[in-house]
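Re: your question about Phosphoribosylamine--glycine ligase

S., sorry for the slow reply, the queue was backed up all week. Below is exactly what I fed in.
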Amino acid sequence: MEFCNRGVLGQAERKGVFTGARTDNKNVHDPNHTGGTAYKPTILENMSSVFTKIIAGDLPGRFVYRDEDVVAFLTIEPLAYGHVLVVPVAEVDKWTDVDPTTWAKLNELAQRVGKAITEVFAIPRAGYVIAGFDVPHTHIHVFPAAKMSDYDFSQAMSMDATDPAQMDAAAEKLRQALGTDEKGLVK
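Result:
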């Protein structure tokens, strides 16, 4: 397996693309490996998801809710201002593999966020989508939706096209509706 060098990673991260690739060229040993050569893992075994890094505080995030099991923060490429990702703290790739208790908490939070979105943005509906193709960490998209075309992810704003002030304002409105502080913790 090839590892990315720091220069390539730096370029990608400056453009807003987080790769999560290892840069240290170290082998990671499989505890079950009994042969003489070191086990070299796949890239997915080497990295935390970008969401794990946001949850840990290694990357910035506009949190609207957080507890020990689930979090909610604004996506950097929203369909509309107020587009939130509801994410388990535990890194689980597929939603079908999330334990039932955490799944219930995710959906309860998604519903609360959806109600806050409809109230704060005076929109008739909140969209709810699980796609799971871009980041290998279960997440639910909850966003303002007035019509079916609002579900078109090809129309999402790029990170460069979003207005940071509008993103911050949307996060603050949602935090007020959810009764959370600037870190997303319940007041």
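Residues 1-46 have pLDDT under 50 and may be disordered. The first helix runs from residue 6 to 14.

Happy to talk it through on Thursday.
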